[in-house]
């Protein structure tokens, strides 16, 4: 008897590809529309988890495109303290799709509004609150730095073959007076929170979809040959500003991001979705990829997801490399310091 | 006649032998140089004692006496100008098309200097005297080395920042390596011709003035030393 499932590949069926095998033997979780060549230049941005992709590209000797860099003789520790080599340019974490759109627009006009917070004679950039560990020495230095980063960000788009963006959050903070978005609520890492000026928005599907679609369209205008890989961070929210339980808020946030990323990847031939979220979060792994806090991903999880990533996208031989380092820079985690005991 | 005191490690060898020739020529007519050198980083045993740099290390005392012509301590009153040469101070460079915060540059320079004999000598020398102090970094490596390349523009930007830092913190100045010693006028790599017949610093040992092994890509020959000293004198005339 003929039926619609008869000709499908094994991967389409639960039992042979998941249920009846050791979960660590799971294969072909992603069959991308395009492959990455060893010679391709790859730009990476997004939430904290995106940092693993960049680090792994470097460890495996792929061409991770860094357009804002410090000299190589400076120690890795110092470079990381000042956020060099964390993402392709020193944007800091870009958690939301609306913030990605803001960065793209600012990099095009290179005259964005700059919000400076002065404390103890040091100047802090509210769009990159932890980019310099002690802030800048003057407002002019801060502005010069952000303009340079905007240029480097644009150059990374222009010069890359592959742009990888990891979606992290739907919960966002806006300045209602000027209409721009912060990466993190003012008052957490820098600045003062003003309830009349700073508003919380938990972005819904349509907002995330529209801003990501617009971002992709702008990326394509800058670089017509660009290919884009979307991933969703498997790392749960550190806190929610909604009135929901964090578990429910996290599911809403990740589900929304996952749905948008999948829909745009289904729609656009040059956009692919890689399921890092599913690989880490699926119940079939029984949480083995999380640390004891059930939030941060342990090195086994990072290695596992990265091996799947490289096996999926790269034609070239991607030998497994030394265990991943887990020293990511996550502004969001600063929120934890404000929790009630 | 300006009296110059040069302190440093094995790299001083090329300067010293070059000076032995230059001092007879018109190039050296306005200067008198005394060398205080020892291999490796053993000059880290020198410490400031009032206006002097002194050491308890017998080997270092002997090397100082050998290289200076009989004196085993540095009396800063006897010299007008000081040069700290080599001594693990490496060329400092920054990408010329990048923007770096002042704090990041200062932290990078601090890290760059940290642990070097050059920093130790600079610190101790500054305790002992207010006179002019110059620094000369180790020669740039040659094309044969596998270090990342940097351009002359990168080097110029970096050395300008290094000099701002040295001026502010030590009232000292670093001298750049002459561009005529480079293989290519845009890339900071010493011409491999200056490796040929480079010799060990003489400190009274059996292997004094021995030719460096072929795989030594750091030590330059007497021609290099001659160019370096001539370039240094030109800066002093300015």
Automatic annotation (TrEMBL), chain A:
Residues of the GSCFA domain:
41-309
Q: Which InterPro entries has this protein been placed in?
A: GSCFA (IPR014982)
Q: Which domain of life is it from?
A: Bacteria
One of its Pfam families is GSCFA
Q: What is the name of this protein?
A: GSCFA domain-containing protein
Q: Which organism is it from?
A: Vreelandella sedimenti
């Amino acid at each position: 008897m003929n039926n619609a499932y008869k000709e499908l590949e094994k991967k389409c069926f639960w039992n042979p590809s998941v249920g009846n095998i050791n979960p660590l033997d799971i294969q072909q979780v992603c069959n991308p529309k395009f492959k990455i060549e060893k010679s391709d230049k790859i730009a990476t941005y997004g939430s904290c988890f995106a940092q693993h992709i960049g680090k792994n590209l470097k460890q495996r000797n792929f061409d991770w495109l860094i357009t804002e860099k410090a000299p190589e003789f400076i120690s890795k520790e110092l470079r990381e303290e000042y956020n060099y080599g964390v993402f392709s340019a020193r944007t800091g974490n870009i958690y939301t799709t609306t913030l990605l759109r803001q960065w793209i627009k600012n990099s095009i006009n290179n005259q964005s509004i700059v919000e400076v917070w002065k404390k103890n004679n040091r100047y802090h950039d509210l769009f990159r609150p932890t980019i310099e560990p002690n802030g800048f020495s003057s407002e002019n230095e801060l502005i010069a730095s952000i303009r340079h980063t905007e240029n480097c960000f644009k150059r990374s788009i222009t010069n890359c073959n592959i742009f990888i963006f990891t979606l992290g959050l739907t919960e966002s903070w806006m300045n209602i007076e000027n209409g721009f978005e912060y990466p993190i609520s003012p008052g957490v890492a820098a600045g003062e929170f003003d309830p009349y000026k700073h508003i919380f928005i938990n972005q819904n599907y349509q907002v995330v979809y529209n801003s990501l679609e617009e971002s992709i369209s702008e990326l394509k205008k800058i670089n017509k040959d660009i290919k884009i890989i979307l991933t969703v961070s498997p790392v749960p929210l550190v806190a929610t500003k909604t009135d929901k339980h964090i578990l429910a808020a996290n599911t809403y946030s990740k589900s929304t991001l996952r749905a948008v990323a999948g829909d745009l990847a289904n729609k656009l031939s040059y956009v692919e979705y890689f399921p890092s979220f599913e690989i880490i979060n699926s119940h079939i792994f029984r949480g083995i990829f999380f640390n004891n806090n059930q939030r941060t991903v342990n090195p086994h999880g990072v290695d596992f997801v990265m091996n799947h990533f490289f096996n999926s996208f790269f034609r070239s031989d991607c030998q497994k490399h030394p265990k991943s380092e887990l020293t990511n820079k996550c502004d969001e985690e600063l929120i934890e310091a404000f929790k009630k005991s | 006649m300006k009296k110059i005191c040069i302190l440093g490690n094995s790299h001083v060898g090329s300067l010293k032998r070059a000076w032995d020739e230059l001092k007879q020529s018109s190039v050296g007519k306005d200067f008198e140089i005394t060398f205080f050198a020892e291999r490796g980083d053993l000059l880290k045993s020198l410490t400031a004692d009032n206006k002097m740099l002194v050491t308890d290390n017998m080997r270092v005392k002997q090397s100082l006496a050998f290289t200076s012509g009989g004196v085993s301590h540095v009396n800063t009153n006897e010299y007008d100008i000081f040069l700290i040469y080599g001594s693990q101070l490496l060329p400092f460079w920054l990408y010329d098309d990048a923007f770096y915060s002042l704090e990041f540059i200062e932290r990078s320079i601090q890290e760059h200097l940290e642990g070097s004999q050059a920093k130790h000598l600079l610190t101790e020398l500054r305790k002992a005297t207010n006179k002019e102090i110059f620094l000369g970094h180790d020669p740039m490596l040659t094309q044969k080395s596998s270090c990342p390349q940097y351009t002359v523009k990168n080097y110029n930007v970096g050395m300008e920042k290094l000099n701002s830092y040295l001026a502010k913190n030590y009232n000292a100045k670093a001298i750049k390596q002459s561009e005529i010693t480079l293989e290519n006028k845009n890339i900071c790599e010493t011409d491999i011709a200056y490796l040929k017949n480079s010799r060990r610093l003489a400190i009274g040992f059996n292997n004094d003035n021995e030719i460096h092994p072929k795989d030594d890509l750091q030590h330059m020959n007497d021609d290099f030393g001659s160019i370096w000293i001539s370039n240094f004198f030109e800066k002093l005339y300015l």
